[in-house]
Amino acid sequence: MRRLTVVSIGVLGPMTATVDGARAALGGPRQRAVLAVLVAARGRAVSEERILADVWGERAPAAGTLRSYVSVLRRVLEPGRAADEPPRLIVRESDGYRLRTDAAGIDAEDFGELAGRGEALLRGGRAAEAAPVLAEALALWRGEPYGEFGGMPFAAPERARLEGTRLAAAEHLFEARLVLGEHAALIGDLEKHTLQHPLSEHGWELLATALYRSGRQGDALAALRGARRVLAEELGIDPGPGLRRLEASILAQDDHVGGAPAERPAEGAERRRNLPHALSDFVGRASEPAEVEALLAAHRLVTLTGPGGIGKTRLALETARARPDGDGPWLVELAELEDPALLAATLAEVLGIAGATTAERLGDVLGDRKLLLVLDNCEHLVDVVRGAVRALLSRAGGLRVLATSRESLNLPGEAVYEVRPLPVEQGRELFLSRAAAAVPGWTPGAGEEAAVRGLCRELDGLPLAIELAAAQCRVLSVEQIAAGLDDRFAVLRDGSGPDRHQTLLRTVEWSHGLLSPAERDVLHRLGVFASGFDLDAAAAVCGRPVFAELSALVRKSLVGVEAGTSPRRYRLLETIKEFTRTRVGPEVRAAHRAWVLAEAEAAAPLLHGHRSAAAVRGLSAQRPEHRVALTSSLLLGDGEYTLRLAGLLAWFWYGQGIVAEGLGWISAAIELSPAAGPELTGPALLAKCRLLYLAGEFPTARDAADDAVRAARELGDAELEAQAVLHRALFGALCGETDFLDPARAALDQARSLGTAWLECEALMITGMLLRFAGLIDEARRTLAESAALAERCGYVFILSSSLWLVMKIDLDLGACERALAGGMDMVLRLDENGDVTSWVVAVHSLAAALARTGSPTEGAMLLGAAAHHGSLVGFSPAEMDPLDAPRQAQDVRDALVPEVFDTWFAKGRSLTRSQIRALVESWRRSRAVRASPRL
Predict the structure, then answer these.
(1) Quick one: DSSP state of residue 381?
(2) For the domain bounded by 590-755, which CATH number is listed?
(3) Residue 868 in contact with residue 828, Cβ under 8 Å?
(4) CA 323/CA 63 separation, integer angstroms
(5) 276: Cβ–Cβ under 8 A, 6 or more apart, which residues?
(6) Spans of the chain below 50 pLDDT
């Protein structure tokens, strides 16, 4: 086995790369830029088109030039790789390339990890451990990141991100050293820092703190005045709450900077509330303030929960503004409060109650004053806020608290109001409102209206995301914004709200940063799911029980619960899923593939029995997971997994009309697995021929059935052989062959000898179909009656309905149209209950002909329209699968009506849902007094 090389790539300064410690020659500027684009993508795949545009701009060469550059980079970074060995570092993915960050050391990623670890240690009260970690992170910088790539579009956002993280890391290191008592030694460095970063309020706070703790109160206040002047001159704003609190503490010399001030009376007489005035219309939640107010009337503590950007703060403010409290309401913004010890002082400052250094004392001062306290963004201080609110409510009888948090405070008497995503129409209203402000006079066309609705669905109805998207209308069309959502964190930025809401990424990172390591790990692993999942599925991909972590993620609004499901199902918002996508490791994808395969193995046998409806519902819910697992296996070149899963899903695909997609998976798997044994190829080939039958490709289906017969005989699988021979006979008959009955009867005998009821009734159904083809109508009818009776006993709804369908066609051939009508109605209702698609469509199509022949041609035309519409949803046409009878049945309906009337009723049928069709069929059956089942 080849020894793995150790590759390191540096972008924090001039770009460098080393392989096993030796400097690697990365080539000219364009080649280096190609590698830099992949590094900047941070483990995400980048399309060839995107790389060419980023590196060459408008004069991009053909894709072959890029591929040659990638080939050279692979040789440079993996010098020992054999020609037939897949690359380990720069891998092909979809229509582009991805740099596997787990296969190389990248200084920018190491820096981010160290900076994050250092901040976590600092926030955890471990400053002595945080300082060396932060110093190590900052030591990785050698110069301007990506500096040599100038104005190339990929570099600017990554450079800004890294510079921002570096600024935060430097300030965290200063903060840690202040905690360790290095006040005087830091003053010079902090003065230099504020000169270089004059708009960083945190930097000014650190400088003033260092000056004050060094005994220089006057200089500390002068520094704060300097900060006020710079912010006013540069940005036209006043200092934020952190600087204001620090200035008040220094002036008062309270406990945190050297002494506590005397208590002073409340200032509420001069100011009764501090709610900011709204800067934009309140759109999309017109009824919700009243709902929250009703909760406040019944409960002294109401907490608005939901994910970041869902609109909790705005809803709280709209509710508070409408209240008639005599003293208040008061807004306490906690997002910028990092030190839990300052919570009581912050509450006292907002309420104008000096000297109340504890929540208990503050509650005593408030007494019976009637007011509402709005505590905004409590999630990072949940424990200390919980204690403070408990103390306040127990001592201040007139107080009510309206909190916003990504998780509830979990206090007795607390009412929790979950702020839900906006429905599509309300999301559209919000988008158009904000877009009108960004682009005055713009009126969306019909195509843009549809794009806006689709965009709101894709953004999970998240108001912040919708507003950020609308703001981009200044520079992008709605279609461009929607197309850019695959990289939504790059597109949804430059918001006008607080820092954590100025980009969608910051909003998610804020929530992510509040998780424990175990919760983060589970969240990252749950990102492998494409749709909803239950607790067992979560445990499967995590490799252990995860109830505690999953419960915490639900409480913290990062995982949603699908109401009314049993067992309960969960789902990640698309935005959270996108955030976790690059954090899903190969071991998680392997666990996901194993879980999908196990679920399919458990469901496949149930499709042939009484529990088929539940199995179909389960597999339908898991269909997005099938796609993820199949894609993952093919990207790994694991065709055998794909063959195994395709064989298990074959009958489900057939019933649901998943034709083109299923054939694509099977063909790719067969191509990838030329040496696969018959135990894998046999079921896959049988699945292939069935799907080709639905597509009307009978010669190709016959060839695939031939291959399935050979595989079954090589394997010695009598059950598989019987199925393959029966299908070979059927497809041969559809291709015009005449010697189809003897093989079918032999396969029927073989099926009977095996004693498997579902296989026997399937063999009877296909044999009955072939007997009808041969003109042996009486024998066909007897065989189909036997098939239906056996299928009903063993619960095989598909075969029961297929047998009824064939009997119905015999009745139509013989002119027994009322009997055909009864059978058709019964078949449609049975298949609807079972969740079938393709057989249901052909049943509806045939029922249309029976209606036309029994004096109801308009109802028949309506059902033809419904069959055409519902078949088109899955790419299925009855005329292609049933070319002998379906066109004639449709013509029977057309011939019974003048064209204009037919077109009217056909169009009406295209708008019908399955539930509406079921109601119509039930009504027709009652009105005609037909029996539930035909006489066979």
Answers:
(1) G
(2) 1.25.40.10
(3) no
(4) 63
(5) 317, 331
(6) 1, 255, 258-271, 495, 497-502, 930-935
128-141, pLDDT tens digit by residue? Answer: 999 999 999 999 99
Find the Cα–Cα–Cα–Cα dihedral 35, 36, 38, 42, rounded to 10°.
140
- C-alpha span between 521 and 312 (Å, rounded): 27
Q: What is the 3-state secondary structure (H, E, C) of 3-51?
A: CCCCEEEECCCCCEEEECCEECCCCCHHHHHHHHHHHHCCCCCEEHHHH
Tens of pLDDT, residue by residue over 228-282, are 888 887 777 777 777 877 877 777 665 455 233 323 333 333 345 678 777 777 8
Q: CA–CA separation, 615 vs 795, rounded Å?
A: 13
pLDDT at residue 263, rounded to an integer: 32
Q: What is the pLDDT of residue 414?
A: 92
Across the strands, what pairs with 375? 332, 403
Under CATH, to which class is 515-582 assigned?
A: mainly alpha
> 288-418: which CATH topology?
Rossmann fold (3.40.50)
- What are 333's strand-pairing partners? 376
On whether the 110-227 domain is CATH 1.25.40.10, my answer is yes
DSSP 69-104: HHHHHHHHH-TT--TTSPPSSEEEETTEEEE-GGGS
Contact criterion met (CB below 8 Å) for 463 and 306? no
Q: Is the dihedral of CA 233, 239, 244, 247 positive or negative?
A: negative
Sign of the dihedral defined by the CA atoms of residues 54, 56, 60, 63, in that order: negative
Spell out the domain ranges in the chain: 7-108, 110-227, 288-418, 424-508, 515-582, 590-755, 806-928
Q: 886-895 vs 899-910: helix axis angle to the nearest 10? A: 120
Contact 609/800 with Cβ under 8 angstroms? no
Name the nearest CA neighbour of 110 among 146, 140, 89, 144.
Answer: 140
pTM value surpassing 0.85: no
| Type and span of the H or E element at 534 | strand 533-534
pLDDT of residue 935: 45
- Give the strand order in the sheet containing 22-23: 22-23, 16-19, 7-10, 105-106
Burial of 828 (0-12, 13-18, 19+ CB in 10 A): buried
Q: How far apart are CA 612 and CA 605, in angstroms?
A: 9
List % helix, strand, coil for the chain (3-state, nearest 5).
65, 5, 30
- Helix (H) / strand (E) element for 726: namely helix 718-734
